[in-house]
Amino acid sequence: METGAMRRPLRVLAPLVAVVAAIAAFAAAGASAATPQNTSNPTIEGNPVVGSTVAANPGVWTGNPTRYAYTWQRCDAAGANCGTIAGGNNQRYRVDAADAGHRLIVLVTAINSDGRNTVNSRPSAVVATTGSAQNTGRPTISGPAKVGEELVAERGTWNGATSSFSYTWQRCDQNGSSCTTLSGATGRTYGVRSVDVGHTLRVMVTGFGTSGSATATSDRTAVVQGLAAPAPVLNTNPCSKLAANAASQTVAVADVAQPNRLLIANVELSPTVIRSRTTFTARFRVMDSCGRPVQGALVYATGVPFGKVQNAPEVATDGQGWATVQMTPTTRLPLVPHTAQ
Questions:
Q1: SS3 129
Q2: Per residue in 252-266, pLDDT tens?
Q3: Whether the predicted model's global pTM rises above the 0.85 cut
Q4: Residue 231 domain-assigned (yes or no)
């Protein structure tokens, strides 16, 4: 009896252990799901110029972070090979002389009671030594050099002191020389015109900083091409090729070819009013779309509604394009006085 009494608590504890384990697993999953998650990357606010101060915008996060940590890094001019800057651990960073010619990034860590997560910003512009604009990558032009098309200026890359831009389009000769400024063409896009045919085009981009500006010029486009000549309109009307004396001559049905086609040009009924169930005559004239009578075309006629007129066999058209069909009403056709057919 004592042995049995000792076993009962063991059987009760086993499911309790499973319940506790399940609760622990659920709590761990809940904690993981509540860790901050980034939905919009951090950004660097301000122009990166030696002596100026830039600031990190932490971006947008889920999970209600309670605080953020910042780590500033210095990268090469291409935005790669980044290294942590000693002391650069605040939201704001004063640009140092050692940063000149490099790009900056900031790593933002969002923290709450359930954990932390880190995301970096995009690299800044190349750090400038003064507030004067400087081009570090030549502008380019995209789009076909063809009348009626649109060209788009890509401004290239500039140092961090550059805060705004302007555009000036120019027309040059085939070799890219003797360039003249195009009046009114000061936007980022340019619509190619007929006067540009045989010339090349280029764009001058001017960047502006707080203490000076700079201008960079794109390479020239290909020689501008005009609109392609419209394709000649082909004469697809077979009737226009007929001789004047052949326009009304009879044509055999075997000689009618597409796009020419057969048409029912005339219909004659005799009598026009059915007063009895005697046979009546229906004549059909078949012509082609050039207006010529067609000989040998098979004509089949039937009455509608079906069953009220006996079906007649096919009849071939004669030399004038006429086919004569004999049709006989059945007893299902009611003879109503003055019924026109």
A1: coil
A2: 988 888 878 899 989
A3: no
A4: no
In a domain, 243, yes or no: no
**Closest CA relative to residue 226, chosen from 287, 140, 148:** 148
Structurally, the chain folds into a number of domains equal to 3
Interatomic CA distance for residues 184 and 195, integer angstroms: 15
Percentage of residues of the chain with pLDDT beyond 90: 60
Return d(Cα 96, Cα 57) in angstroms, integer: 20
Note the pLDDT tens digit of each residue in 53-64.
999 999 999 999
Contact 173, 92 (CB under 8 A): no
Full domain range(s) for residue 145:
135-217
Any idea what the CATH number is for the domain that residue 173 is in? 2.60.40.2700
Residues 213 and 255 in one domain: no
β-pairing verdict for 294-295 and 251-252: parallel
Q: Are residues 142 and 186 in the same domain?
A: yes
Residue type, 27: A
The average confidence (pLDDT) of the chain is: 86
Looking up tokens 């970096």 gives 120
In a domain, 222, yes or no: no
Q: Which of 120, 143, 168 is the last residue of a domain?
A: 120
| DSSP code string of 18-56 | HHHHHHHHHHHHHHHHTS-EEEE--EEES--BTT-EEEE
Question: What number is the average pLDDT over the span 204-219?
Answer: 94
Specify which residues 55 forms β-bridges with: 45, 92
Tell me the mean pLDDT in the region 233-237: 69
Q: How far apart are CA 308 and CA 291, in angstroms?
A: 34
